[in-house]
Write a structure and sequence with these properties.
By secondary structure, this protein is mainly alpha-helical. Strands 1-3-2 form a 3-stranded mixed β-sheet, with helices on both faces. The longest helix is centred in the N-terminal third of the chain and has 24 residues.
Length: 355
């Protein structure tokens, strides 16, 4: 009986895949019935159950799962030759369960309506529009920097412990929900990753565990990045799977926060994306515009760059390549490059606004 059940589970991979492809072709259905329906209940349930824990339960699940897989493959290594069929059935049955759990608990959010469509924004923009918004962001970022730094040449040092920054992050969403009610965030479940060292050397500043709905921030990244990284992972918890959308929402949450350091981090975060895109389009124009940015802001950028350079290693590109291909398999055609498409949301949302 158990063998038959495993066979059925293994064979379920194909219909699961076909159903997911069908869902991907109907984003309005996913948006209404999953992202704004089933998922909201699932997400809140997990955050109520696990959010109060001072450590990451999901990281423990990952650790146990990895150790169990290593043990299983070692113990069953001889079966691969002696009982090949049943060996593959066992592996595929386990894969089917994980595949099902991933999509039911979070993964279907990859197939929801694009954020620009639900906000009624354009997906494209001109260089003129980009320059206009970037100039606004330079003025705003410089203004915020002046409020939190003694002079314009000093980088900003956030005077809070990293755990305190994570605890404050939901406040930005409390303010943001006044304009976007669907961004209400309660209860919270955001934690430092127990795997911060390997996470750093893989080149990632945070992640959402799709099986436990816990948001994780790499405890080693500079404190200056904690406000936006925490806000980014919360956006994932709220069901925004696309990286560009999570970055845009993180910008909104940080810049709508009551805390001036969150505001500074948010505006500097958005400005960096826009400056990078200007550089890609016109390096000479970039040089002219970056000259207007306070030196202290550029030092914060360099602080982050130096951190990642110091932790580069030969295996990092492989992890990023794997994740990029994972994103492409889930309707993010540009892979990790899709992070840069936050600029389209920033430009089209803020072009007509005064801030």
């Amino acid at each position: 009986m158990l063998k038959n059940k495993k066979t059925v589970m293994a064979l379920s991979l194909l219909p699961q895949y076909l159903l997911i492809r069908l869902a991907a072709a109907h984003p309005e259905f996913v948006e209404q019935y999953y992202s704004n329906g089933v998922y909201q209940w699932v997400s809140k349930l997990f955050r109520y159950v696990l959010g109060w824990l001072p450590f990451s339960f999901g990281d423990l699940v990952y650790a146990f799962g990895i150790l169990y897989m290593i043990r299983w493959f070692y113990k069953n290594r001889k079966r691969l030759r002696k009982d090949t069929k049943r060996w593959f059935v066992d592996v595929l049955a386990a894969a089917a369960v994980i595949y099902f759990a991933f999509h039911i608990l979070w993964g279907f959010n990859y197939y929801r309506l694009p954020l620009h469509a639900s906000l009624g924004l354009q997906a494209d923009y001109t260089t003129e529009q980009l320059v206009n918004v970037t100039n606004k962001l330079i003025i705003r970022a410089n203004s915020m920097h002046a409020k939190v730094s003694e002079n314009d040449t000093l980088k900003v040092v956030i005077p809070y412990h990293k755990r305190a920054i994570m605890q404050r992050a939901p406040k930005g969403y409390d303010n943001l929900k006044q304009v976007f009610p669907h961004l209400e965030y309660h209860p919270k479940s955001i934690k430092k990753s127990l795997f911060s060292y390997p996470l750093t050397y893989m080149g990632f500043s945070g992640y959402l565990n799709p099986l436990t709905n816990e948001a994780h921030v790499d405890a080693l990244i500079p404190a200056y990045k904690f406000p936006t990284t925490s806000s980014h992972e919360i956006a994932h918890q709220l069901g925004y799977a696309a990286e560009n959308e999570a970055n845009f929402i993180a910008f909104l949450a940080a810049t709508n926060h009551d805390d001036i350091y969150f505001n500074y981090s948010g505006y500097a975060f958005g400005l960096r994306f826009c400056l990078n895109e200007i550089y890609n389009r016109d390096p000479c124009l970039f040089e002219d515009m970056v000259a207007d940015v306070n030196l202290g802001i550029l030092k914060n950028y360099d602080e982050v760059r130096s951190f990642w350079v110091a932790h580069q290693n030969p295996v990092e590109p492989y992890f990023k390549s794997f994740y990029s291909n994972f994103l492409k398999a889930n309707k993010q055609d540009k892979g990790m490059e899709s992070y840069n498409y936050v600029v389209a949301l920033l430009v089209n949302y803020f072009e007509s606004k005064t801030f």
